[in-house]
Amino acid sequence: MERLLCGILLYAKPHHLEIRELDLCDLAITAIEVASRMRSSIDCEIRLQSSPVPSIRGDRDKLHQALLNLLCNACEASGKTDVVNVSVCTYQQPNWVKLSIHNWGKPIEKEHLSRLTEPFYTTKGTGTGLGLSIADRIIADHRGRILFDSSAERGTTVRVELPMADLPADDGPTTMLISEGRT
Ligand SMILES: Nc1ncnc2c1ncn2[C@@H]1O[C@H](COP(=O)(O)OP(=O)(O)OP(=O)(O)O)[C@@H](O)[C@H]1O
Ligand SMILES: [Mg+2]
Question: Residue 145: enclosing H or E segment and its boundaries?
Answer without folding.
Answer: strand 145-151
